[in-house]
Amino acid sequence: MYPKPFDYVMPATLDEAIQKLQQDKAMALAGGSGLVPAMSLGRAAPALLVDLRQLADLAGLAPRPEGGWRIGALTTYATLATSQTLQENYPALAEAIQGLSDPAVRNRATLGGALAEAHPASDVAAAVLALKATLQVRGPAGARAIPAAEFFTGPGQTALKAAEIIYAVDLPAAGKASAYEKFKNPASGYALCGVAVCLEKAGGKIVGAQVALTGAADYPQRLADVEAALVGQVPTAARVSVAAAQIGAARLNFVTDLAASAAYRAHLAEVLVKRALARVA
Amino acid sequence: MKISLKVNGQPHSADVEPRLLLVDFLRDTLGLTGTKRGCETGECGACTILLNGKAVKSCLTLAVQAEGGEITTVEGLAQDGQLSVLQEAFWENHAVQDGFSTPGLLMAAADLFKRNPRPTEAEVRAALDGNLDRITGYQNVVRAILAAADKLNGVAAQPAEAPPASIMGASIKTKEPPALLRGETQFVGDISFPKQLHAAVLRSAYAHAAIKSIDTSAAAAMPGVARIFTAVDIGAMMPLPVVWVPQDVQSHFPPHPSGIVPGSQPILAKDRVRYVGEQLAVVVAETRQQAFDALDAIKVEYEPLPTVVDAEAALKEGAPQLHEAAPNNLLALASYGDKAVVDEAIGKSEVVVKQRFHNQRMMANTVETRGCVANYDLKTEEYTLWTNVQPLYPVRLLISQYVLGIPYNKLRIVAPFFGESLGSKGYLNAEYPIMLFISRQLGRPVKWVDTREGLARSTTQGRDQVEYMTLAGTKDGRITALSCTAYSNVGAYPVINAPGQPRTLIGRSIPGAYMIPSTFYEVNIVYTNTVPVGPLRGSGRAEATFAIERMIDLYAREIGLDPAEVRRKNMVPPDKFPYDNGVGFTYDSGNYPAALQKALEKMDYANLAARKADARRRGKRLGVGIGSYVAVAGVGPSGVMGKEGLVSGTWGSASVHVQPSGEVLVTTGAQPHGQSQGTTFAQIAAQELGIPVEYVSVHHSDTSSALYYGQGSYGSRSLSVEGTAVQMAVQKIKAKACKFAAYLFKASEEHIKFENGKVFLVFAPDKAVLTLQQVAFMTWLAWDLPEGMDPGLEATAYFNPTNFNFPFGTHIALVEVDEETGKVEVVRYVAVDDFGNVVNPAVVEGQTHGNIALGIGQALYEQVVYDPQGQILTDSYATYALPKASALPTFELDRTVTPSPTNSLGAKGAGDVSNPPVAPAIVNAICDALADLGIKHIDMPVTPEKVWQAMQTAKSEEVSDVSQAI
After folding, report:
1. Gap between the Cα atoms of A262 and A213, Å rounded
2. Start-end ranges of CATH 3.30.365.10 in chain B?
């Protein structure tokens, strides 16, 4: 109903923020779209909130010298949703953000905040997985890079260590042939099932494939069996169907809840994999 | 910590707790209450503001996060007192009904214009995805935003249609929106008084348990806590009463000490709770936050008991028992019609169709929750309650006589402007009397406003009936008999009118718009460990209409006839009115086939084959579904309601004063909550008097008014009952004016006429003439009145109709079902309704939009879910799905006009009657789309998963059929 009392600081630098986050029950605050309602509902009760909003240099898009783009962790969804760069180079991420929540939430929510929250139905999680993004984090022990595929480790769990902050998300150059398909939970707007795909093709064959699932299983993850069924193949409709059918073979922990059964989610996953691949194959 | 920011151009500084939400800072610290608190978790959008020029949900934002920012709230949209183009467009396009969601919608639109000055309709709908509105169906909101965009882009507006010569029948702009659009209108949550305390209610965590102990000591010591009340602290407060007491069948209510009416739930549970959410204690503190903080510190020791949440299960042997007074959990078993006759007719019929339906439990889930401010005035010894409750006078009578035991004269109830209800604010709830009691105990005003989670556990829910239907007929499409055995879940306690819905409203409506030679209806009304159930918009008629309209389609399919044809064959023909439907209702007037025909033509029903084929090429199945209806409205005839068991008059009343100034004041027993009676009733008076509508004011929603009693607004009764009383009162005034003029002109009354606001002698209309204003002034002076005439120009009229009225119509839905996912999209929706004579067409159009959106919600999305232990799993907007703007098509509306002979306006109800045909039209359309798979029925809500499962099952059966054939 009301958040429980907490202390609040607004550090001026990333180092200071990391230092503050080492206190007991400290949590980082980005846009707040996920954390503030969690506090109102009593599902989160930090003792200290570390507001990152002064770290203005953590927002924005920039090309990386080695190719690809870097997205500052505090870049809002609204900025990303209208970014020409994203739409042209990383359709999967642009589509994930455009189909996510509503304009007022997009104005506040940030990419880094959402990844750190690691909601089991996070749209952007699927997109960064499919795009083979690298999460740049810094913490008490210094900076490190975490590949997206290693970031989501379980339901609501990530590879982030205590007091670590995501400060940027790096996207490799290859991402144009990507797409995101979502089936919305009509109540929450989250993905009942979401699938992001990204293909690399050469000589009429698929040479690289990433297929990522969100909302349907217990946490966002890549679908290795589906990917394996694509690589080295000619991207025909028949091949796409064969690959999508590998979802059944995958030992995924599909979720049953109020909104849908595991069986239906598994079915949706197959349908959405097909639809997403059909758009990029 | 200290924050500084600008709000609507004004600088503000304040010292705030870090945990203070921006919405509470704006509302409580700055007093800017135009920004509403709806869901508290970012789903409803009522708290949307602009922060640094961008839309933000202020409940998802801490006040400290806005430090240094510039904020625009709804109060800041109008410049120099002038409504903005957007606000004007909302007013012009009738986009405001109750108005609670309006500020958030305006801010979302303002944000959209910054990003996209020329949005398409689809873009507008998508931009509203973060805003919920249960009343408007979004249609006029979308229209208003598009119109505003046009105006801002210099696109010339469509030339307005020529206004009708008559005030009646004109879609004039309603009076209420300007203040609502500015965010100035106060809803109950916006009212505050000096020295006010805040209350929070502790609710049972168990659906069925014995209460061993309640320890409030730790909570009582918390900061700001004034006192905590449990059952032992509230003395002789009586339990809630019930006023619908069937006399013709045995009924089993909990006891009530009055010995006059039966009882319901205790105000605070003492030693036993029967549903999750039953109230146990009230914390009163200096701030709302302190009250809620203390709530967590109360320790309750429960001893859990077995639970039952399903009506059919609750009747079974060995089921947990809720009330000593109700063996087997049966509140009542009632029936209409002759079972033997119906069974015999079914036995002899050529075709018999059977189906079980579950009309699922819903909740209104209004964006505005319930709330009240209670005050006891020591000087006058009077209690006043400001609250969002529909039947003010009935609640006043019940609280004073049957709960608190105080003089009726000492209790005043005022309904401030109030948000969405959908019927859920039509009851007497425990919070109202207890807050009055607490105010007296503590000598200070007490405010209580419910939360979203509280609403799910404490506000009356709707529907929840299982029906076993049997329809019999001939092979060529004539219905011969109808039988229904029903199980109605009333929840843990009866609401004030609990037996009314399952008995009268459903039972007597079950034959629908058809001539059925014999009908039988039997209902078991059953207690379960769930939140109490009562009427919800469309109530009773929605359940009945769903059942009969689905049966018509099942029957049509069984005999291979077009469902439209079966309807046409069986509808009550226009020359049969008044028509006795055989189970207690006499339909007043109608031309049911005409409305059906009009809807079919509008849908181009005969030519959908090409569209169906096209859909199949896109992986979709197109289906069309009809929902025809006749719905009882206009409660009503008091004697008839008395025979049904209602212990309350249901007549309408109005008092009309032509003031010494010549202005007209109408006081009505109606209680608007978005229906615009402030405008439509002024139209009635203005039309009757022949004066401009601007001269008429309408007063309502305060029991201290001059009116003797007001029934309030519910069940589509206001216009035909209360509105007719307005017309009758004005006619009395005209008669008095004529009598006075005859006396003054020394003429016979038969030579005096009243026209266009003037009374004159027919022989000398220019010379012997008085304006209404002059008559009012002269009768006020009373220097020279005819013998026996009282001074003043005022009249009160009562209208106790002899029958209900029966609006009707046909709705047709066109849906597409995704072959792969089972997702249903409503692609077209046509509604042809007959509300009799209509005063303000735009008002009833807006109401119809709301009814359709709610019906689509029931058909596709909405459902209250309890787990077997009685925990409610759908207690937020994130878990209780509702249709959003982007999920709805533009509804295509039309009307036929068949005046009702039951009232002098010729009006039929409109407010909730067009909801009942919606859900069956949608489900009929879905079943049509799936017909070739052999799928006959899917229970609501028809979710994509249910459709997919049905398709899977059908396809596997097909396969096994084939293999068997081989």
Report:
1. 14
2. 651-799
**Of A120, A140, A171, which one is at a domain's C-terminal end?**
A171
Q: CB contact, 8 Å: A3 with chain B?
A: yes
Q: If you count residue pairs, one on A and one on B, with CB atoms under 8 Å apart, how many are there?
A: 130
Give the pTM: 0.98
Burial class (CB in 10 A: 0-12, 13-18, 19+), B483: buried
Chain B residues lying within 8 Å of A10, measured CB to CB: 64
Domain range holding A11?
7-51
Q: Contact, B239 vs B267, CB < 8 A?
A: yes
- Identify which of A49, A186, A258 has the shortest CB distance to residue B865: A258
For B602-624, how does the pLDDT look when each residue is reduced to its tens digit (9 = 90+)?
999 999 999 999 999 999 999 99
| Contact flag A187-B861 (C-beta cutoff 8 Å) | yes
Residues of chain B with CATH 3.10.20.30: 2-158
Query: Which residues in B lie closer than 8 A to residue A261 (C-beta atoms)?
Result: 945
Query: Which chain A residues are Cβ-neighbours of B21 within 8 angstroms?
Result: 2-3, 36, 40
A37 interface with B at CB cutoff 8 Å: yes
Q: Are strands A26-29 and B197-203 parallel, antiparallel or unpaired?
A: unpaired
Edge-to-edge strands of the sheet including B652-658? B696-699, B664-668, B652-658, B793-799
Enumerate the residues of chain A whose CB falls inside 8 A of the CB of residue B944: 183, 264
Neighbours of B308 (CB within 10 A): 25
CA distance B428 to B406: 16
- Say whether A2 and B130 touch across the interface (CB within 8 A): no
Q: Hey, what CATH topology would domain B2-158 get? A: Ubiquitin-like (UB roll) (3.10.20)
Q: What ipTM score was computed for the predicted complex, to two decimals? A: 0.97
Q: Tens digits of per-residue pLDDT, B688-743? A: 999 999 999 999 999 999 899 999 999 999 999 999 999 999 999 999 999 999 99
Check CB contact under 8 Å for B56 and A104.
yes
Mean confidence (pLDDT) of chain B? 96
Single-letter amino acid, residue B559: I
- Summarised one tens digit per residue, pLDDT across range A64-115 is 999 999 999 999 999 999 999 999 999 999 999 998 889 999 999 999 999 9
